[in-house]
Amino acid sequence: MQNELLAHVRQDEEGNWHFHHLQEHLEGTAELAEKFAAVFGLETLASIIGKVHDYGKASQKFQDRIDPELHVDPQVDHSTAGAQFLVEQYGDVAILLAYIAAGHHGGLPNGKDEHESCLSRRLKKSVEEYRSRIPTVSLPEKILPADFIPLKITGKLNPYSLHFIIRMLYSVLTDADFLDTETFMNFEVSAARQRKRDSIGDLHAKLEQHIATFTSDPPINHKRAQILTWCQAAAQQQPGIFSLTVPTGGGKTISSMAFALEHAKTHKLRRVIYVIPYTSIIIQNAEVFRRIFGDEAVLEHHSNLEPKRETPQNRLAAQNWDAPVIVTTNVQFFESFYNNRSSACRKLHNVADSVLIFDEAQMFPPELLKPSLAVIRELVGSYGCTAVLCTATQPTLNDTSLLKKEALKEGCEIVPDPQQLYEEFRRVEVTVRDEALSHETIAQEIAEHDQILVIVNTRKDARQIFEQLRETHPAHECFHLSTMMCPAHRSVTLKAIHACLDKGLPCRVISTQLIEAGVDVDFPIVWRAIAGIDSIAQAAGRCNREWTRDKGRLVVFRGEQPPPPGYLRQAAESGKRVLDSYPDAPLSLVAVKRYFEDFFWKRSKSSSVDGLDKKGIMQMCRSNPKAIPFKDIAQQFKVIDERTYAILIPYQHEGKQAINELEKCRFHKEHPGYVNRELRKTLQRYTVQLRERVFREFRQSAVIEDVFGDEQFFVLLNKDIYTENVGLNPENPVFMEVESLII
Question: What's the pLDDT tens digit per position in 430-444?
Answer without folding.
Answer: 999 989 999 999 999
